[in-house]
Amino acid sequence: MAELVRKSSIHIRDARIAGLYDLEHTIGQGHFAVVKLAKHVFTGERVAVKIIDKSNLDCESMEHVMQEVRCMKLVQHANIVRLYEVIDTKTKLFLILELGDYDMHDFIIKHENGIVESLAQQYFYQIITAIDYCHRLHVVHRDLKPENVVFFEKLGMVKLTDFGFSNLFEPGKQLRTACGSLAYSAPEILLGDAYDAPAVDVWSLGVILFMLVCGRLPFQEANDSETLTKILDCRYITPEHLSNACKNLIQRMLVRDPTKRAVLTEIVSNAWVMAGDRGHAAALPLIVKHHLSHSAHTTIIEQMVAGGIGSEEAIMSALENDEYNSMTATYYLLAERILATHREEQAKELMSKTTTTVNSEEIVERFLV
C-alpha cells in the first residue's frame, strides 16, 4: 500500500490535521518549521508534530527537507526519536514524532558545574550508540547539540532528534554543505572546506560531552567572531575536577585536524566510556511488532478495524512494508501504550540496580534533578 498522501491545504493555525491529530501549543520553532504538541485523536496519545511550510522553500531547501524524511525513515533505533507518520499536503509537510519530556540543554543549565561523570557516561554512551548506528547506515547528523537530545525520564533514556541537517554519505567521499550551529561545528565546516562526514559528528560529540561534565560550552566568547577564533585555534580549558580519562576522551574528539580526530569505534571502546553504565537502551529496544504477544497484536488490529482505521489486510501490509502512514502510526502508538507500564517497570528495576554501584551523592544527582 502506498504511503498516505493528503492533498488538501492545511494551515498551521488549524486545530486538527486531516482528522488525525489535534494540535496544541508550540514547543519549538525554526526558520521554516514549527513544532507543536498534539494529541492523536484515535488513541489519545501525545506526539510532537513538526510542521514545515513548503510554500517558503526553494527547490534546494525542499530537497533538504525530503532528505530529512528519508534519513529519519532509515534510522530506527532505541536512542533516536521515532518518526510515526508523514502527512504531505500542497503547502505543508507534517512529521509526526515521538514526544519526549525535555531536551538536554534544559538539563545542563540546571547543573552549573556539570553532572557527575557516572551519569554523563550513561547519557553519552546512549548518544554515541545512536550516532554509531547512523554512521553504519551512512547517515550523518551534522547538527548534534544538547537541544537535539531529548530525555525520556520514565525510561531513563535519551534520544537524538532533529535530522534537519542530516544527509547520506559515501565512505571516502567528502561533503561540502556548511550547516549546524557555530558553537558545535567542526573547524573544517566553519572554514568552508570539504569534510569527512563522520568526523564532524565526532567533533560535536566532544562539545556535548564537555558540556555534560563542565556545565558550559568549551568555545563561547562575547561574539561569534571571537568564538570562531577559539574554535579554529582549538583553545579550551577543562576543569580540574574532571578525571584524566574523561579529559583524555574530550581531547581526542576536539582535535583541529579531522584526520587525527578520534573515530567512533575508538570512542565506543574508550576506557572512560566502557567503565560507565550502559543505560537502558539494550534492555528497552525500539518497539516493533514482534515485541507484542499474539493476543496483544490481535487486540490492536481488531481495535483499529473497528475504529475504521483500515482493513486488517491494509494494516498488515502497511506494517510489513514499513510505511509511515496513519495505520502504522496508530498501531505503534497503541503498542507503546500496551507496553508502556511494563517498560517503565523494567526501567525502574534497571535504575534500582544501577544505584547500588554509585554513592549517595550521585543518587541525589540522578533522581532529584
UniProtKB/TrEMBL annotation:
The Protein kinase domain, residue ranges: 21-273
Molecular-function GO terms, alphabetical: ATP binding; metal ion binding; protein serine/threonine kinase activity
Domain UBA: 295-336
Record's keyword terms, sorted: ATP-binding, Kinase, Magnesium, Metal-binding, Methylation, Nucleotide-binding, Nucleus, Phosphoprotein, Serine/threonine-protein kinase, Transferase
List of residues binding ATP: 50
PROSITE patterns, sorted: PROTEIN_KINASE_ATP, PROTEIN_KINASE_DOM, PROTEIN_KINASE_ST, UBA
One of the record's GO cellular component terms: cytoplasm
Superkingdom, natural source: Eukaryota
Broadest EC class assigned to this enzyme: transferase
Localization of this protein: Nucleus
Catalyses which reaction(s): L-threonyl-[protein] + ATP = O-phospho-L-threonyl-[protein] + ADP + H(+); L-seryl-[protein] + ATP = O-phospho-L-seryl-[protein] + ADP + H(+)
UniProt entry tagged with the keyword Phosphoprotein: yes
EC assignment: 2.7.11.1
Record-level GO BP terms: intracellular signal transduction
InterPro entries per UniProt: Kinase-like_dom_sf (IPR011009), Prot_kinase_dom (IPR000719), Protein_kinase_ATP_BS (IPR017441), Ser/Thr_kinase_AS (IPR008271), UBA (IPR015940)
Cofactor: Mg(2+)
Family from the record: Belongs to the protein kinase superfamily. CAMK Ser/Thr protein kinase family.
Role played: May play a role in hematopoietic cell proliferation or differentiation. Potential mediator of neuronal apoptosis.
Protein name, UniProt field: SNF-related serine/threonine-protein kinase
Protein's organism: Dictyocaulus viviparus
Higher taxonomy: Eukaryota, Metazoa, Ecdysozoa, Nematoda, Chromadorea
